[in-house]
Amino acid sequence: MMNRRSVLGAAVAGLAGSAFNRAGAQAASGGKLALGLDHFAVRATGWKAGQFIEYGAGLKLDTVFLSELGVFESFEAGYLKGLKEQADRGGVKLYVGTGSVCASSNTWKDTFGTPVEHLKKTIEVAKALGSPVARCFLGNQKDRSSDGGIEKHIEAVIATCQACQSFAEGEGIKIAIENHAGDMQSRELVGLIEAAGKGYVGANIDPGNAVWAMEEPMRHLEAVGPYTICSSVRDSMVWETEEGVMVQWTAVGEGLVDFAAYAKRFAELAPGVPLQVETISGFAKPMNWREEAFWKIFPKMPAADLAAFLNFAKKGKAIPGFKAPEGAGKKEAEIAYQKGELERSMAWLKANV
User: Fold this and answer.
1) pLDDT digits (tens, 9 = 90+) for 186-198
2) Confidence check: pLDDT of 167 > 70
3) How far from each other are the two terminal CA atoms of the chain, in whole angstroms?
4) Domain containing residue 71: CATH number
């Protein structure tokens, strides 16, 4: 820890003009950046797939990302065909995803069979709905402190992807692995994709989850962007505390990320991929990096990446959280809050991107 801290002072001071801050100066790649909704942004509604499609079409979005299989009322061909037709009428392209496909993760559920069966089911649904990807993830930050560390889980996900390779390629669907809830840092996600095979596996990039993994979003984009085939984005506010930092996700345009610069660089690194908003706001997560025990989950983090993150945090300020009032109107208040976060994000992006 003493060595780590001694490096940080000089590194943080020198990063202000480094490469990851140059993205804002990059020219836009040209063409319209498609904007979409990750359905989890308005999860309190309890809607099913058709209602999320209707909502996205009503907002005049380009895409609707149905990122969990639980939103589907059926996997029957007729039902899925109807959803595809509804989306076509509404002028939105569908993207499809699911949860963990890692049986060793604490997030794993066997609702849809084994990891391979689960991923194949997601690929089937993606094919039926015209989604170019089947999104999935490893787990969350807790997996980093389990026996074998994150490497054990990465190996399991690679094996699942490879077992599904011929099926995915046969259906013309790419597998998109998300950096999820602080499970993997950028170099780990890129390593997973390279090991599995980047011809049929790519990234579902999430700058909010990158912050949970102690990574500055623009620096994360530079690493993961070239592998990106799908996205779930939000803004983040980070501020310093005596123990380390606090992280709170926000609506786009209300946090620390320069999203105009982010969107321009995103379009350059991942041309044709939509920027899909997944706001998850209202609560703060402590990242107590000053405590030695914290580094058990990030034992190999490069000093330059840590310095970039801490430099990012120095620009932030504490913001209030949100909790819906108890009582009969709690659910309605949660829905109104989530819709507000999502719709402000979309308005900001339409005005600034």
Assistant:
1) 999 999 999 999 9
2) yes
3) 41
4) 3.20.20.150
